[in-house]
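Folding Task

Wanted — backbone structure
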Amino acid sequence: MRSLLAGLLVALIIAGVALLIAGVGALGVAAIGLLLHHWFDLTQWQGTLVALAVALGLGYLVYKLSSQVPASRPWEEDLSDWDEDEDEDEEEFEAEEPPIVPWRRQRPVPGELPKDKPAPSAGATKRK
């Protein structure tokens, strides 16, 4: 029972705050309508309607700009399917390894040094 009453109290507080904000907004629009009535040849009612239309238009514009989803660019691919495609590509890549060429077999492995060969003597000449 306490949680029900607490929930109702919170709902009443939220409704009261919303009504207060709406009342302040309505008085603001009416004040702008009064200002337009003094500046231009309009009745206060016409000025208030103009102010209300401008306020609604600005609100709609702010809503559209804030809720706009960024457009996907053609050079960016969809990353949601990237993990699924990655597994398939790895399997294909592992199955298609090229054969090792002979000159690569003779290269030393990192960490191993090649066997020392005797240095040619200084007096040795090339034979043609």
About this structure: The first helix runs from residue 2 to 39. The chain has a mean pLDDT of 79.
